[in-house]
Design brief:
The complex is a heterodimer of chains A (284) and B (293). Chain A is mainly α. In chain A, 75% of the residues lie in helices and 1% in strands. Chain B has a two-stranded antiparallel ribbon. A two-stranded antiparallel ribbon of chain B has the order 3-4. The chains are: A mainly alpha (284), B mainly alpha (293).
């Protein structure tokens, strides 16, 4: 039962991240490689706030505000630099945040990470965590479904297709792309907080390149503007490493094998699905 | 003396960053792609050297093995990316490059473990002059940087092969019409960048311990030098590479009242400096404005 609940929580948590990734990468077509930075920054904000004696609920709000600020910063950068520079800066931000966290060991506990993160009083055991995660994931999916039906959702798809046309229709694409990045950051922050409350430990090595490959794999699996592809993406990245359990690999190698598999899987996926990235030309 | 020591240390590190940035610049100029996996190739080259070293090969054999393996990875990476390069899907090429880099690093970690490895036995030989210390590898790095710089200048500006590279950089379609084999030049660029990455990896490994994931930080610094310097002029990249190493080195080595910074702050400073510069000069400090038709 414990294994089932853990896997279910992980799947629905991944689904919340998947909603954010789907919006920014698959719908709006923004190659936002700073996603693990947002995730890590908000998780550390929650953990540090809790360690400072702030209640889990208020710490969660602090994590959301942190994600909002980091998202705003990335949104500003996106409107200033070229897409490839934005991608490189997103990647570099992961390394910079990692170095910053390991340098500020007085607050972050350095490479040891932060343990003993307290759950809110209304979700003290694993079944409660699983129920809350499922409820939040369904709510996030519902929000995305609503967003997709609104002009905001149509703008997201139009932004990926033809930014210039969108501008000519009077849409402020700079403000719009900033909003998409902020929405993605908030979804990631919610997922990060729930993840922390489940495992009650923050590993300092979390939120680096393997986390990025994990998120990108999910994003590429859910390229189509349909909710079911988000579920598919989250399902594949959750259950793919579970196959490794059937093989007798040494536990010290498991992490590397998982990273290797994800990376190869991402290369194959892009190779197979890359035509979906090309903007389709509509003929009227 | 203190300032001179920092300058010498920064010069050596800056040369390593510059060599990597040169490889990235060559690939970017010819293919318009951002080749992140080059960082993993540096470590792959260093590990190939390490493997040959543990098998008892002579130093030139180890060097050849390291460089050859990096070049081979460059070639494999081009074969993986060529479809995206030819369709101008540069961001997809970036994603594939990231994934390929992660695969190389994970494979290295599986094969050699995460602990640090040394490419030489014994104490690192150093030269001392006027109270300033520089390792033999450091001197060799500066020498390689100088030779590579002169060679690159001669090839790009005085030889027909250089004109081909510049032609593809300026107008790929026009170059193809003139009979230049664009794909062949792109393939060679990836291999040359791989060779440079292998040399940098071995030089880094001779100076300090290597780990499978150690290639990401230098490649990130090289990219930031490329962005800060501007992607249109390599002179800007040279200045940016040295400045991005020198400024954090001074900040980390100095003390500001009670405030001191550890060495791990360097990358944070590099990122903040790059961020501030790019916020005001999105195309880099030394870029020139060109009109688009």
């Amino acid at each position: 039962m414990g294994y089932f609940l853990t896997i279910a929580s992980f799947f629905f948590n991944t689904l919340i991240q998947g909603v954010g990734v789907h919006m920014v990468l698959s719908l709006a077509g923004i190659i936002f490689l700073g996603m693990p930075t947002v995730l890590k920054a908000s998780m550390y904000a929650l953990a540090i706030a809790e360690k400072a004696g702030i209640s889990p609920e208020i710490s969660f709000i602090i994590a959301l505000v942190t994600a909002l600020v980091v998202g705003l910063l990335f949104g500003f950068l996106f409107t200033r630099v070229s897409p490839d520079s934005f991608a490189v800066l997103g990647l570099a931000s992961m390394l910079a945040l990692d170095a910053l966290i390991k340098s500020l060991d007085k607050f972050t506990n350095g490479v040891l990470g932060i343990s003993g993160i307290v759950r809110p009083s209304w979700m003290t055991d694993l079944p409660a965590v699983a129920i809350v995660t499922v409820a939040v994931a369904l709510l996030c999916l519902f929000i995305e479904l609503i967003l997709l039906k609104t002009p905001f959702g149509r703008r997201m798809r139009a932004f990926k297709e033809d930014e210039i046309t969108l501008q000519s229709l009077g849409i402020n694409t700079k403000k719009f792309s900033r909003n998409v990045i902020i929405f993605c950051s908030l979804f990631l922050s919610v997922a990060g907080s729930l993840f922390l409350w489940r495992i009650q430990f923050l590993d300092a090595n979390f939120g680096t390149v393997p986390a990025l490959v994990f998120l990108l794999t999910m994003g590429i699996l859910s390229l189509k503007p349909k909710i079911r592809y988000v579920v598919l993406g989250a399902g594949v990245v959750t259950f793919l490493p579970e196959i490794l359990r059937f093989f007798q690999f040494p536990s010290s190698q498991m992490g590397y094998i998982r990273d290797f598999l994800y990376a190869i899987f991402l290369i194959v996926l892009i190779h197979q699905l890359h035509t979906h990235f090309i903007t389709s030309r509509r003929t009227i | 003396m203190f300032v001179l020591q920092i300058l010498i240390t920064s010069l050596v590190t800056g040369t390593q960053v510059l060599l990597l940035a040169a490889g990235l610049y060559l690939i970017y100029t010819v293919t318009r792609t951002i080749h992140i996996a080059l960082g993993a190739s540096t470590m792959a080259g260093a590990y190939a050297y390490y493997l040959a070293f543990t098998l008892g090969w002579p130093w030139y054999g180890c060097l050849f093995a390291g460089i050859l393996f990096s070049a081979l990875l460059g070639a494999v990476c081009y074969l993986l990316l060529r479809n995206y390069i030819h369709k101008s899907q540069v961001l997809l090429a970036l994603l594939v490059s990231i994934a390929f880099g992660v695969a190389i690093e994970a494979a290295l970690a599986m094969g050699f473990g995460p602990e640090g490895r040394y490419l030489m036995d014994g104490i690192l030989p150093t030269f001392d002059f006027w109270g300033v210390h520089i390792t033999q590898v450091g001197v060799f790095t500066l020498f390689v940087g100088l030779i590579a710089g002169i060679a690159a200048y001669i090839v790009l500006h005085m030889l027909p092969q250089g004109r081909v590279v510049r032609a593809i950089a300026q107008h790929p379609q026009c170059a193809s019409l003139l009979g230049i084999k664009e794909r062949k030049v792109q393939f060679i660029s990836y291999v040359v960048a791989g060779v440079v990455a292998g040399i940098v990896g071995i030089l880094t490994g001779l100076n300090s311990a290597i780990t499978p994931y150690a290639g990401l930080q230098p490649i990130a610094m090289a990219f930031m030098a490329l962005l800060v310097g501007g992607l249109t002029d390599f002179r800007g990249v040279v200045v940016a590479a040295y400045l991005l190493v020198l400024i954090p080195e001074f900040l980390v080595s100095g003390s500001f009242g009670d405030i001191t910074f550890s060495a791990s702050w360097k990358l944070v400073f590099v990122f903040v400096i790059a961020l501030i510069i790019l916020a005001f000069k999105p195309n880099g400090v030394f870029s020139s404005v060109t009109r688009k038709s």
